[in-house]
Write a structure and sequence with these properties.
Layout: H1 10-22, H2 26-39, H3 44-56, H4 60-73, H5 78-90, H6 94-107, H7 112-125, H8 128-141, H9 146-158, H10 162-175, H11 180-192, H12 196-209, H13 213-225, H14 229-242, H15 247-259, H16 263-276, H17 281-293, H18 297-310, H19 315-322
Helix pairs in contact: 1-2, 1-3, 2-3, 3-4, 3-5, 4-5, 5-6, 6-7, 7-8, 7-9, 8-9, 9-10, 9-11, 10-11, 11-12, 12-13, 13-14, 13-15, 14-15, 15-16, 15-17, 16-17, 17-18, 18-19
Length: 324
């Protein structure tokens, strides 16, 4: 049908645009907001909404332009500043985002959304104490909310407090047994604590809820360590299917094939890993070792030399080179 714009009610039109964006109907959403901006080029809510539309499509540079225009129009607008910080965070500028979020929190000290975003940014910038403070407060306010425990667990993990991390992830799974992030976080903590069987179970539960290439890769390594070769191969292949650029999964698949004596397959997997990530020293050394086993010494020599070139401090590469 024909899209209607209500210039006398910016909130209604922005709300409709947001709904269209949630349905991935970005052209319709952008049309609605552009019509509002034609009527008032400095309408703050419309500028913010246009920024949100671009951010959802990962057009971060364009999004930032609209957020900054909104802030110029209304410097005290906490929503414009918050969304600008989210944009910076989404593109990896965590320090800048954290600084803005601290300012927004002064304007709106009870906003849980701001607290969560700031806490996550602080984990990226090494401000673990502030992240712990924010997430402990949220956890106390919402003890039955899985996300509160997940965020606190991540902060505790950053502080190397393993037992408390484990406890918070367990509480998160008890709050919601359908939260993949809780199960996968629990799995990683159990794995780090040398509890492989429990970790395998947690990975399986998490992956049943949400497919994740890194998680399949980690589960594959647990299977490989326990010599469950078919399960390990399935996991590495699933990781690669989800993310064909995951060099670690190809490296681990190569390790599996080498252990099974499938040297040609191993060499191909290691080659793919270093093609994806030329600086991947471990994969380069692994390829050299397989080539040695195949008596392809000149190629093996080149692998070890390239590994040393990438990391001159890699003692393992020098040792392998000495056997050629």
């Amino acid at each position: 049908g024909v899209l209607r714009v209500f210039p006398w009610h910016i909130g209604a039109s922005c709300g409709l645009a947001s709904l269209k964006a949630q349905q991935a109907q970005y052209d319709d959403a952008e049309y609605l907001v552009q019509e509002l901006l034609k009527d008032d080029a400095s309408a703050t809510d419309a500028l913010i909404e246009m920024g949100n539309l671009h951010r959802q499509q990962q057009h971060f540079h364009e999004a930032e332009k609209y957020y900054l225009a909104a802030i110029t129009r209304d410097p005290s607008n906490a929503n414009a500043r918050f969304n600008h910080a989210c944009c910076l965070q989404d593109r990896g500028q965590h320090a800048e985002a954290a600084q803005i979020l601290k300012e927004v929190l002064k304007i709106n000290p009870t906003s849980e959304e701001v607290q969560v975003r700031l806490g996550r940014a602080c984990l990226k910038t090494g401000e673990t104490a502030l992240a712990l403070e924010l997430f402990r407060e949220l956890s106390a306010q919402h003890p039955n909310r899985a996300l509160s425990h997940i965020n606190l667990a991540l902060a505790l993990k950053s502080a190397d407090r393993t037992e408390e991390t484990l406890s918070e992830f367990q509480l998160a799974t008890e709050c919601s047994d359908a939260n993949a992030e809780a199960w996968l976080g629990l799995a990683q903590t159990l794995e780090a604590g040398k509890r492989p069987n429990e970790a395998i179970n947690a990975y399986q539960l998490g992956l049943a809820l949400s497919a994740s290439a890194p998680a399949y890769n980690k589960l594959g390594m647990l299977y490989l360590t326990n010599k469950r070769y078919e399960d390990a191969e399935d996991c590495f292949q699933l990781a690669i299917n989800i993310d064909p650029a995951l060099a670690n999964a190809f490296n681990n698949l190569g390790r599996l094939y080498r252990e099974l004596g499938r040297l040609d397959d191993a060499a191909q997997s290691f080659r793919t890993a270093v093609e994806i990530k030329p600086s991947f020293v471990e994969a380069r050394i692994n390829l050299g070792m397989v080539l040695q086993l195949q008596l392809r010494f000149p190629e093996a020599l080149q692998c070890f030399e390239l590994a040393i070139e990438s990391d001159p401090s890699c003692a393992r590469a020098y040792v392998k080179l000495g056997f050629i």
